[in-house]
Amino acid sequence: MRKEGEIKSRSRYPSGSTKKSDRVAAMEMEKRDSEQRKKVLETIAGKPYNDITKDAISGIVSKFCKRLYMFGEKYPQFVRDIVGGLIQHPNICATDREASVSHPNSPRRC
Predict the structure, then answer these.
(1) CA-CA distance, 47 to 28, in Å (whole number)?
(2) 10 occurs within a structural domain
(3) Residue 18 lies in a domain
(4) What whole-number distance in Å separates Cα of residue 71 and Cα of residue 34?
(5) How many domains does the chain have?
(6) Is residue 17 part of a domain?
(7) Helices 22-45 and 77-88 meet at what angle, rounded to 10?
(8) Which of 20, 68, 71, 108 has the most C-beta neighbours closer than 10 Å?
C-alpha cells in the first residue's frame, strides 16, 4: 500500500520553461529554418536574399531541378533548404514555384 502511494506521488511534469504548445514550437522551428533557407539561397546567388531577382531565381530553379536525380530521392538537408527557400522567396514567379514543387525528383514531392 505504501509503495503504491509513493509511486503515484512521483508523477513528473515539465517545468515552466519547457512547456510550449505545439504551435509555438512549430513557429520557432519555422523561423529558424527560414533563416537557414535564406542563408543557403544567398550563398548560391551570391547576393543578399532580398536582392535576388526573378531571373536569378528562374536560373537557379532550372539548373537545380536538372540535377535532383543525382540524389536518388535521399536528399540531404541543404537540398530541402534550397527548395524551401526558393518556394518562399517573394520574387519567385508561379511557373518556377510550380517547377520546384512538382518536378518528379523534388524533395517536396517525396
Answers:
(1) 26
(2) no
(3) no
(4) 23
(5) 1
(6) no
(7) 90
(8) 68
| Grid cell at residue 90 | 517573394
Rounded-to-integer distance, Cα 96 and Cα 98, Å: 5
Q: What is the pLDDT of residues 34-89, one digit of tens each?
A: 888 888 888 988 999 889 899 998 888 888 878 878 887 788 888 888 888 888 88
Q: CB of 65 within 8 A of CB of 73?
A: no
What is the domain range of residue 110?
32-110
In this model, does residue 31 exceed pLDDT 50? yes
CB-CB contact of 91 with 54 (8 Å): yes
- Rounded to whole angstroms, the Cα distance separating 32 from 21 reads 17
Helix axis angle, 77-88 relative to 54-66, nearest 10°? 150
Whether 23 is covered by a domain: the verdict is no
